[in-house]
Amino acid sequence: MEYLKALASLGVWPAIYPLGASALAVVGGSAHRLRFHPLLALATGSAVATLLLMALAWAGAFVPVAIGLAGWAVLAAWCWRERAWTRIGPALAWLRLHARRHGRAASAAAAIVVAAFFLYAMYPKESLLGERDEGLYAQHALHLLRSGGSAIDLAAIGIAGDPGIEAIAQGKAPELPGLYPTGARWTFQFSAATPVWMAMLAAPLGPQGIFRFNALIGALNCVAFFVLARRLLPAGARAWAVPALAVFALQPAQVWVSRNSLSEPLCAWFLATGLYAASLGAARRSRRLGLLAGALIGMGCFVRIDAIVFALAAAAAALAAAALGRDARQPRAAAALAETALGCYLVAALAMGYFLACVQPYLIGLSELVVAAAVATVLCAFAARVAARASALRLGEAAAARLAWPAAAAVAALFVYALWIRPHLPPYALIESRLVPQLNGQRDYREASLSNVAAYLSWPVVLAAGLGAALAVRAMLARRLSPARAWVLAFLLVPTVVYLWRPMVSPDHIWAARRWLPAVFPAVIVLAAFAVAGLGRRLSRTGAQALAAALALALGGHLLWQQRDTLRLREDAGMLAQIGAIAAQLPSDRRSYVLGQPQLASALLNGFGVPAVQPPPETWNDPARFCPAHGECWVVHHPTVQPIAVAGAVAVADLPLRRLRRVTSVEPLAHGTYQEAGLWRVTRIAR
């Protein structure tokens, strides 16, 4: 029976493509004609499925078997309607034609993606403790599998009214990591977009599927990045997309995040596919496809609340296009890109509504960022509208051409300043966070952001990116780029500048690189490829391909060598089983009390459904102050830090928690690993 349930729950995965193809058909126009496009169909289908799964999780109706059966039904209905078996022959013919035209590049890209997926999937980080965000996403996924909803019903679990719970609700005790005390039904801190997919992969594969979801998304991101990079590079210089892919797929932050249970990979997926769809929409002069592209970009806001900066990027790109007079020269392409910006605004607004309704404390904690980004977006969108209508506000072609070289020089000077001067000039910025107040007052090292990026991608790539940024600005002003390329490059510059200026994450590396994954790293790599394409435009096609292959091998080998001590590291291996062993010793029909380890209490409560409570800290030394007056009292504690020596106390089990972890440092990249080991005792007190 379990095998049948696993097979049934698998149905959601093959249903993504037909769901996306059907959605593209409904959109109509060019989107209808592209409904069989693999990348567009997968991206659109994953967006629609994400929203449906989030709605089910919010409603408490998240049942993987039923969802999978619905997926199988969608697949069967779509195959019958589209007569999918008749399209196998044309699809194979298209693949053979594509292999003849781009066989070498496609083979090299496939080899890089396969190697990257192996590194991602074989060495996952199995973290379940909520000391960092990845443990909270994993706990949320386990909670969905067990309860069928995102809300934590305290009464159903059996801990409503406990003094420890009441103390948290009244603000007299610290909150459990990643949980907001919102009445009788507590709320997880982050969006459910990533946990619902982790849960759907864990339903057929078991809990280990949670820790491998990002490996799958990481590989898809490699494909999306390669397709987008080829789209942005000049037609005769697309061989340079291969070394760009090697850097993207094998750089340390990409490898680490794709092994982790974080939300950045899913956000990056929607951004990359949305930008690709935007370029297609502009090329085909399709407003409907442009609107869909904007919706895909905006879906990143459902995954991560800080992705609201993508709406600002869309507004800034629209303003740049209007100010340079691109709208008047190619009005249909400009209209498609305007629809892209509109779609991004609308979906971003819906995403903020979701956070307001479902994760309100999180939205309030980041209200400063959200409000600032929203105000800047409105101002840029208004300015773009005015510039598009008033010719006097647009930069003429002759004036833009005169500014091309000075603007390029200014970009190069800014790059030099950010890379070599600003890191050494005080005063240095300090962290001020309402969400993580324990970091307040520390340096966030934003002054060294660009040089830190170089530590991940290598100095040659970052130096080439500086040159590429200058050349891209010059090409935009000189009107040597198509509207789609100019819009996408202008879009990428905004989140790159924002996240380099304000990383918004803890300053220790490799954690400090998280925010750079969706936009900064891809933008830097694309700009570097743009520069190399410009420098190598006089090479023959064969020479360019050979040099690109050599560059891919050299850069890929260098990046892997950088990670030699962590490349085969399974961080936190066995953590799920170790916490599960503690949970197995505790009763499921009465409360258990965890002393001095809120992360463990959160993992037991959310991950395994144990009615675990952390008593108020002032009561830890006296079990009589938190244990019930009658019956058994179960306590999880450290035997030496919080010893329990009272009448009726019996040690049930001593269970270890061993963690193999990588070294972190404010100086990237830190090397080496270390092991944490602790002993936790389960004690039963008879009263």
From TrEMBL:
Keywords: Membrane, Transmembrane, Transmembrane helix. It comes from Lysobacter yananisis. The chain crosses the membrane at residues 6-27, 39-56, 62-80, 105-123, 213-233, 266-283, 289-322, 334-357, 369-388, 400-420, 453-473, 485-504, 516-536, 543-561. The keyword Transmembrane helix applies. This is Glycosyltransferase RgtA/B/C/D-like domain-containing protein.
